[in-house]
């Protein structure tokens, strides 16, 4: 079937979201359209026809076809553009993925309608044949989806490789800058002398300012000390944050753990 | 169907696992003792002279404590008098963290003060109050404002309304024992003598003051009622009578007698009756100070070679040594919660005020000397009142914050000012 | 039975006599010279080279009588021992460094120290009173060796 191992590597939220939605939609698709177990394997159903049935519209095939076409097109694009600037094109890839997701959601709706049509069919052989065909199509789709997943991964991996040396170092650098700026404003006068600690969570705007008031997640048990540390956060606005949106995204929500009197040696 | 469900769950879990991401954590260690920037704005309708304006009283009080730094408010137009008048961006630009605004209504019979304490960062009201009093209570109202602001921010009640006692020596061999506000205002003499007065001690119930007088050509102990002015000679035994120390319930006094021998510690009722020797030694034992729980007494003794501070348990009479740093440690006094002791220590040939954490035994020097003496804690334990002798020429009193960072003198005149005592919260 | 009560009463009286409750009133050190000045040999007090020296000086934070002052102390001790009517007061002092109360105790220790030396030479406690003024008469402006003279015991006689 589809390889579970493929799901394990993930690079960023969008790709993960995409992965999740793909699989969920697939599951739903399979759940609703495929009969996993034949209803009555040992009894044949006989339909009594008064006349020879006319050919019903086989619309259910079309969507899959479209999907196929779509995927093939993008697959070509991706393969072409890797040697160039993977960075910029990662954006395009992501945008396309978004479009795919949107299309998938539209497809899901269509699947609902198909299900209703399905129920009309009474002929078992016909349904069997349809099912068989569907299975084949599904496998084909999954295979191509696998390939696409793989190429998406290659693209994103390339992305990552370019930034690799810079990305984690940059993150640490900004974390250190933020830590330094706040630490020099911590007034521990109201925090006694014991080795206490307290935690705040903050949300930041790209300007480095607070989106909202800091949230106390763990109190020092001394409200005056909690308030003094919260003031230190306010005084430190605007916090030094990166301009690069991807890097900023990792820092826009932070958990700050304070030890106003330091820690024991 | 179950096969489907199992696979479904498995897939969802795997997907979620790859989705789950902890937010970044930053550890911030340490900090420094700083002062909270507060804008104490002139109150509307406050027509007083500069020194006695309400905001000036509050500013001086809060700055004395060492926890606050007042932002300059001179030359500001459109002074807000109410929280709704506050332009937060203006005060944020001035780096104010808190602000106090208010209004005063005064007539011949009463003064009414309404005020707000505002959090500038969060743009919200912390507290608002209205105080009414007769016109002569203006300074007291100012101190009450300081007390409440202090309590809201630090979690500890303020002491700005309390009183102090001190001895003033005039040039012509005249000594007075004076009582004044903490900031030195409203001073008056309660004892006048031609002989020295030392070791003043305000009783914990606020009603009396004990002191040592040399008027009988040797040291003797008096207890004086502060409301009536009546004084009683409670100790005039053979030899010296000195170092009175109130028990926490104000019912007893520890004291020092000599009887042709070295100074030794006794305990008696506050009226002078039923005196008992506390302990016997061949050394100097002096300067008793009760622990606030009434279970033990701290004292100075030279049994270790030089003066050090010890503690005796009143139950089993077990004696423990308390000070171990340096060769000269005298004059112990305790915080109301019994956790800290202030005393005088000699370092580098200079006598300095120190504070010791009685649990960790960590010692912090609060002053630089060279001749500091007679430290006593504020009723909230956050400040120490003491005497500074500058090269013997003058001596004055002042307060220092418990972390030693903020010293503020108390202006009560140019003469030799010594031997201070601090009233309790209620008196 | 009666004997027992008498015995108990006697024992009680004995204990009462040994009670450590001090006497409440103390005469001021400068008492009047009651029974006249006979046998006090005032001329000797006023002329003798050693007896005219009334101050013993001490090192910082110290209370032992230094060797150079032993002769003076001994001379006064002999005088007191020889004149049972003489009453002396030893008034201890300290310089202004340090706490008032500790200086009071230090001054006291110095005067007791002088008294102890006198006791060795036969002067009895009943003729000597020790008091202290601590730093209360010291020069509050002294610098360095100027403060030396504040660390002393003054010997005075009630008769003077």
How would you portray this structure in words?
The complex is a heterotrimer of chains A (265), B (427) and C (160). Chain A has seven helices and three strands. The longest helix of chain A is centred in the middle third of the chain and has 60 residues. The two termini of chain A are 56 Å apart. With 265 residues, chain A is mainly alpha-helical. Chain B is mainly beta. Chain B has four helices and 30 strands. The longest helix of chain B is centred in the N-terminal third of the chain and has 18 residues. Chain B is globular and about 100 Å long. The model of chain B has no long low-confidence stretch (mean pLDDT 93). Chain C has a four-stranded mixed beta sheet with strand order 1-4-2-3. Chains A and B meet through helix 2, helix 5, helix 6 and strand 3 of A and helix 1 and strand 1 of B. Strand 3 of chain A pairs parallel with strand 1 of chain B.
The main pleated sheet of chain B reads as: 5 strands, mixed
Shape of chain B: globular
Low-confidence stretches of chain A: 1-11, 40-51, 53-84
Instruction: Report the portion of residues of chain A in β strands.
Output: 5-15%
Strand count of chain B: 30
In short:
The complex is a heterotrimer of chains A (265), B (427) and C (160). With 427 residues, chain B is mainly beta.
Helices and strands in order:
The complex is a heterotrimer of chains A (265), B (427) and C (160).
Chain A: H1 5-8, H2 13-33, H3 61-81, H4 86-118, H5 124-183, E1 198-203, E2 215-218, H6 223-235, H7 245-251, E3 253-259
Antiparallel strand pairs in A: 1-2, 1-3
Chain B: H1 2-19, E1 24-29, E2 36-40, H2 54-65, E3 68-70, H3 88-93, E4 98-106, E5 111-119, E6 124-133, H4 138-154, E7 163-170, E8 174-181, E9 188-193, E10 197-202, E11 208-213, E12 220-225, E13 231-235, E14 241-246, E15 252-257, E16 264-269, E17 276-277, E18 285-290, E19 296-301, E20 308-313, E21 319-321, E22 329-334, E23 340-347, E24 350-357, E25 363-365, E26 372-377, E27 383-390, E28 394-401, E29 407-409, E30 416-422
Parallel strand pairs in B: 2-3, 2-4
Antiparallel strand pairs in B: 4-5, 5-6, 7-8, 7-30, 8-9, 10-11, 11-12, 12-13, 14-15, 15-16, 16-17, 18-19, 19-20, 20-21, 22-23, 23-24, 24-25, 26-27, 27-28, 28-29
Chain C: H1 2-18, H2 42-47, E1 55-57, H3 70-82, E2 88-93, H4 100-120, E3 128-134, E4 152-157
Parallel strand pairs in C: 2-3
Antiparallel strand pairs in C: 1-4, 2-4
Helix pairs in contact in C: 3-4
């Amino acid at each position: 079937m589809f390889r579970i191992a493929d799901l394990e590597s993930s690079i960023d939220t969008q790709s993960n979201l995409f992965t999740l939605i793909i699989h969920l939609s697939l599951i739903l698709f399979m759940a609703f359209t495929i009969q996993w177990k034949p209803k009555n394997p040992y009894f044949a159903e006989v339909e009594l026809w008064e006349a020879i049935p006319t050919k019903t519209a086989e619309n259910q095939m079309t969507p899959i076809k479209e999907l196929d076409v779509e995927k093939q097109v993008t697959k070509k694009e991706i393969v072409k553009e890797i040697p160039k600037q993977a960075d910029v094109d990662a954006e395009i890839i992501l945008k396309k993925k978004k479009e795919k997701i949107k299309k998938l959601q539209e497809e899901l709706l269509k699947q609902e309608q198909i299900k209703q049509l399905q129920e009309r069919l009474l002929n078992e052989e016909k349904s069997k044949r349809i099912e068989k065909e569907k299975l084949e199509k599904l496998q084909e789709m999954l295979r191509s989806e696998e390939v696409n997943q793989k190429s998406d991964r290659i693209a994103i991996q390339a992305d990552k490789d370019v930034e690799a040396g810079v990305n984690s170092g940059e993150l640490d650098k900004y974390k250190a800058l933020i830590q330094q700026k706040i630490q020099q404003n911590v007034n521990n006068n109201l925090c006694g002398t014991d080795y206490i600690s307290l935690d705040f969570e903050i949300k930041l705007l790209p300007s480095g300012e607070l989106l909202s008031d800091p949230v106390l997640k763990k109190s020092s048990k001394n409200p005056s000390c909690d308030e003094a540390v919260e003031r230190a956060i306010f005084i430190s606005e605007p916090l030094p944050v990166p301009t690069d949106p991807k890097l900023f995204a990792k820092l826009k929500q932070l958990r700050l753990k304070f030890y106003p009197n330091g820690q024991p040696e | 169907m179950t096969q489907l469900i199992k696979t479904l769950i498995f897939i969802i879990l795997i997907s979620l696992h790859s989705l789950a991401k902890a937010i970044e954590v930053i550890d911030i260690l340490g900090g420094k003792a700083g002062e909270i920037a507060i804008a104490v704005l002139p109150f509307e309708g406050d027509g007083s002279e500069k020194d006695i304006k309400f905001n000036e009283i509050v500013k001086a009080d809060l700055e004395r404590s060492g926890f606050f730094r007042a932002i300059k408010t001179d030359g500001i137009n459109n002074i807000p008098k109410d929280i709704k008048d506050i332009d937060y961006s203006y005060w944020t630009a001035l780096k104010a963290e808190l602000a106090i605004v208010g209004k005063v209504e005064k007539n011949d019979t009463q003064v009414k003060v309404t005020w707000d304490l505002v959090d500038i960062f969060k743009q919200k009201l912390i507290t608002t109050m209205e105080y009414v009093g007769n016109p002569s209570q203006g300074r007291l109202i100012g101190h009450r404002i300081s007390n409440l602001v202090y309590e809201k921010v630090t979690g500890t009640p303020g002491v700005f309304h309390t009183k102090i006692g001190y001895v003033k020596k005039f040039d012509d061999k005249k000594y007075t024992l004076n009582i004044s506000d903490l900031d030195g205002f409203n001073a008056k003499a309660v004892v006048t003598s031609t002989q020295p007065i030392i070791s003043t001690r305000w009783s914990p119930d606020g009603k009396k003051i004990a002191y040592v007088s040399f008027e009988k050509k040797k040291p003797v102990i008096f207890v004086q009622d502060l409301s009536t002015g009546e004084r009683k000679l409670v100790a005039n035994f053979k030899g010296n009578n000195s170092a009175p120390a109130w028990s926490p319930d104000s019912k007893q006094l520890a004291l020092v007698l000599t009887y042709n021998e070295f100074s030794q510690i006794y305990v008696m009722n506050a009226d002078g009756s039923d005196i008992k020797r506390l302990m016997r030694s061949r050394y100097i034992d002096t300067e008793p100070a009760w622990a606030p729980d009434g279970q033990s007494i701290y004292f100075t003794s030279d049994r270790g070679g030089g003066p050090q501070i010890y503690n005796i348990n009143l139950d089993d009479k077990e004696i423990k040594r308390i000070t171990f740093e340096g060769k000269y440690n005298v004059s112990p006094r305790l915080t109301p919660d019994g956790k800290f002791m202030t005393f005088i220590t000699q370092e580098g040939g200079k006598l300095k005020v120190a504070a010791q954490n009685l649990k960790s035994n960590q010692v912090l020097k609060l002053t630089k000397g060279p001749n500091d003496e007679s430290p006593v804690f504020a009723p909230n334990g956050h400040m120490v009142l003491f005497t500074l002798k500058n090269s013997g020429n003058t001596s004055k009193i002042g307060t220092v914050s418990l972390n030693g960072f903020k010293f503020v003198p108390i202006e009560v005149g140019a003469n030799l000012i010594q031997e201070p005592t601090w009233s309790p919260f209620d008196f | 039975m009666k004997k027992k009560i008498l015995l108990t009463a006697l024992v009680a009286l004995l204990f009462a006599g040994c009670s450590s409750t001090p006497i409440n009133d103390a005469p001021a050190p400068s008492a009047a010279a009651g029974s006249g000045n006979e046998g006090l040999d005032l001329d000797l007090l006023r002329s003798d080279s050693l007896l005219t020296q009334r101050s013993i000086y001490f090192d910082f934070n110290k209370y032992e009588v230094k060797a150079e002052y032993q002769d003076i102390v001994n001379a006064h001790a002999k005088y007191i021992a020889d004149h049972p009517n003489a009453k002396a007061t030893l008034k201890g002092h300290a310089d202004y460094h340090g706490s008032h109360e500790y200086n009071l105790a230090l001054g006291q220790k110095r005067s007791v120290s002088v008294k102890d030396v006198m006791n060795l030479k036969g002067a009895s406690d009943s003729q000597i009173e020790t008091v202290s003024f601590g730093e209360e008469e010291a020069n509050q402006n002294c610098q360095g060796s100027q403060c030396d003279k504040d660390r002393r015991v003054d010997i005075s006689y009630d008769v003077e």
